[in-house]
Design a protein that fits this description.
It is a single chain. The chain has helices at residues 8-24, 33-45, 54-73, 75-93, 102-118, 125-150. By secondary structure, it is mainly α. The protein has one domain (8-150). Helix 1 runs antiparallel to helix 3 (54-73), helix 4 crosses helix 6 and helix 5 packs across helix 6 (125-150). The radius of gyration is 16 Å and the shape is globular.
């Protein structure tokens, strides 16, 4: 399984991908212990039809807390957010959860683009630019999260 400590953003995306996979192909869980454990958690948490595992929610919450901390203390980080925020607001307005956090919006964007690419769909140049900005932001957050874990 992807390690939350190594790259928390990739970990969240990985969990989301596993959730979708197991919703579509629950019988495939028997291929590995990891998939069986995830499927069992999904059943226990009642998210077989939709939603996210508590593991993913907790990791997202940790990332959002770090984001809030950086917004208060890191001017360069705030500048990146201010640059990408208008695009994230457009994305959020097109979802059923327009009040989601900027961090979650970045993750949703990357996940949706990943799904479109798997379907061999075209990604507009404007979307590609926002994806690069979101990736940069999440990379910085993940590295900072990792560095903070190493300090303890």
């Amino acid at each position: 399984m992807k390690s939350k400590k190594e790259n928390i953003a990739e970990y969240i995306l990985y969990l989301w991908q596993l959730e979708d996979y197991l919703r579509a192909f629950p019988e495939q869980a028997q291929q590995s212990t990891e998939l069986m454990e995830i499927l069992d958690m999904m059943h226990q948490e009642g998210i077989m039809q939709g939603g996210h595992l508590q593991l993913a929610k907790n990791a997202l919450s940790e990332l959002e807390d770090l984001h809030d901390e950086l917004m208060d203390s890191e001017a360069p980080y705030r500048a990146v957010i201010l640059h990408i925020e208008p695009s994230l607001n457009v994305l959020k307005s097109k979802t059923d959860r327009p009040t989601m956090s900027d961090v979650e919006a970045c993750l949703v964007l990357l996940y949706q683009v990943m799904m479109l690419r798997l379907q061999k769909q075209e990604i507009s140049e404007a979307t590609d630019i926002v994806v690069k900005d979101a990736t940069q932001l999440l990379r910085f957050l993940s590295k900072t999260y990792y560095d903070n874990q190493e300090a303890f």
